[in-house]
Design a protein that fits this description.
Blueprint: E1 3-7, H1 11-22, E2 26-31, H2 34-40, E3 46-49, H3 55-60, E4 68-71, H4 77-89, E5 95-98, H5 102-110, E6 115-117, H6 119-132, E7 136-141, E8 146-152, H7 162-165, H8 167-171, E9 174-180, E10 183-186, E11 199-205, H9 206-213
Parallel strand pairs: 1-2, 1-4, 2-3, 4-5, 5-6
Antiparallel strand pairs: 7-8, 8-11, 9-10, 9-11
Length: 216
């Protein structure tokens, strides 16, 4: 369980706070809109009405107590930048800021953000990949060009084992888990025999995973 601060109850901020809470984390939400905070307050560990560009407001939150601080403010880049910088200066352990454009991300990273999220850009990219192939079911982008992609098992692999196919060497990828019949098999054995209904969660470079996806 992590202690999470979400500053800015934009649509994305609200969705993010809800997901973090559903994953079992302690979540504090902050916004300068009293109506929004009053509406959401009962759902979270703590909630604060305040303008986080003011140093005393941020200090009152106990920034060092949070494992992750999210800055998810809509349509006000200057405010996002100021808050991101202040969080960094106060010693926040991890600052993740929302950006709409690459130029915003560049300034945020230079001024204290540890990571950047592009909600619309990331969603569009993920949707495009999923819709481009009926065999791709989900995608999780990682660092350094690596992804975890859920795909259906190629028909040529039915009845064969992970070991026989030598997947790691041939495709420079790893099978992290297998979904079959509504059940998840994490870290499958090299002797696992693939079946028609299987989905595989593959870790690797996008192009290498797509090589697997192109097998019929």
């Amino acid at each position: 369980m992590k202690s999470v601060l979400v500053i800015g109850m934009s649509n994305f901020g609200q969705l993010l706070a809800k997901e973090m809470k559903n994953l079992g984390n302690d979540v504090m939400i902050v916004d300068n809109d009293e109506g929004i905070i009053n509406e959401l307050a009962d759902e979270y560990t703590d909630s604060v009405i305040g303008n986080c560009t003011k140093k005393d407001v941020l200090e009152s939150l106990g920034i060092n107590n949070f494992d992750i601080c999210f800055v998810t403010i809509d349509n006000d880049f200057q405010t996002s930048l100021e808050i991101t910088y202040s969080l960094h200066e106060m010693g926040a352990k991890m600052v993740i800021a929302k950006a709409e454009r690459d130029i915003e991300a560049k300034f945020l990273l230079k001024n204290g953000a540890d990571q950047i999220v592009y909600p619309e850009k990331d969603m569009a990219h993920k949707l495009a990949i999923r819709c481009n192939s009926e065999r791709i079911f989900d995608l999780f982008e990682l660092a350094n060009g690596y992804d975890i992609i859920e795909i259906s098992v190629p028909s040529k692999w039915y009845g064969q084992t992970i070991k026989d196919l030598d997947i790691r060497r041939k495709f420079e990828t790893n099978i992290l888990a297998i979904k079959s019949g509504g059940q998840l098999n994490p870290v499958p054995s090299p002797d696992y025999i693939f079946k028609q209904e299987d989905h595989i969660l593959v870790l690797g470079k996008y192009d290498e995973v797509m090589r697997i996806n192109s097998i019929r």
